[in-house]
Design goal:
CATH architecture of the domain at 345-456: Alpha-Beta Horseshoe
Radius of gyration: 32 Å
Structural class: alpha/beta
Order of helices and strands: EEEHHHHHEHHEEEEHEHEEEEEEHEH
Oligomer: single chain
Low-confidence stretches: none
Helix content: 25-40%
Amino acid sequence: MACLWSNSNEVLIQIPLTEEIDNVTFYQISVKVGEIKWNVKHRYSEFYNLHNQLITDHGVSKDILPSKKVIGNKSEPFIENRRKALEKYVQKIFIFLRQTMPKIFVDFLDFHLYDIYFLLQDLSLLCFTKGDLILSSSRVYSFKPIELYAINEFLKSPAPNFTNSSKQLDLGPILDLCSQLDAFIIHGCYNDYLKSNIILNKLPIDLSPFKIQKGLYLSNVSLDMVTSLGNARETVTTLEVVFSNVKRISDILQCDILHKNTLEESQKWKVLETLDLSNNNLMDIDESINLAKNLKHLILDNNYISTVSDLTQLPNLENLSIENNLITVCNDLHRKIGNIKTLNLSLNNIVTGKGFYKLYSLETLNLSSNKITNIEELECLGRLPCLEYLVLNGNNVSSSIDYRVKVLEFFGERAADIYLDNEKPSEAELDKVSILSALRIVKEGKTPDLSMNGSS
């Protein structure tokens, strides 16, 4: 990230190129501060407007801007000469204004987008003017890594001494807003940032200056660049890390820990209840998940997990979603997720429901869009006493004849209470269930009871 005050002798401003857009000539300004560089385009009229403002407010000489020309201003020789003249103009202006850097000139060269000090000036003004509105509505703010990096760099470096005292930066409004937010959202990016050579996900992220109250949401962020989570482990109840390409849960829960092979007391997420790690490259549920023993909701959708791991160290876990992964076999799930109430394993490769047979707390089960073809593979689900919501559509079995009736029959007297594929059974279906149950009982040599649906 650019830092003009510490690289004031390493600034290069040029206009190497022109570009015609919709019959208008734009001059591409290249700005380089230290190792950071960016481009910004302006047409001549924007130079002209800038110049007039600088004459009025900042004592810039009137005759240093190349003059207008109405006739012949599209010829190549004219454009080339103007390019050279405008390059000299903007270089002279920068030398003249480098100690004051008025806002209009900062914005003209896009310093407010890429330079630590000028970016924070804009952010501070935004927090001052809109802070109350943010706090009265969502109490959530979305940061870019470049903003967090700028705050940290400014806090640990001496402030620049601009001759214009009105330009002194006050971080107060930013830190005040941050201290009252319920949740932080951080959006990263692996590509060049805007028109610069800055890559957001190569900027270190240090959360120690911030008091994160309840929620931390990271999207497309490189966890390798998180150097400190600050107080997050003590206070965060909801953590979401998505589209970040991580392969192990430890890369998230221990992202700021150098040696991840041991689980220390200081690494525990003490009040974390909801963890969403969807849309990553997770291969399994590793033991670092036990750092969040108070978890109630675990979401691992759209990863590459092939098996449900032992989660018995999470006694409060109620909701588990591993949608669209690579799960094929689910054996003895009661030994791994015994107290679960809601389980979503849709869009996997599961072929049987037999592994679910002792999940006695289970209330909702989504097995939609798997590979179940045999109706008998679902019989054990009827013995789950708390199950009320069952989703099986998208499996081959759901297109078989009398599929709904046959599945509902497994639930016996509870068939009327079951929502199968988000639908309660009709009276006609319950009548058929009663008949099928009676036939089965007769085959077993017993006397059938045909009053299952309460209406016969």
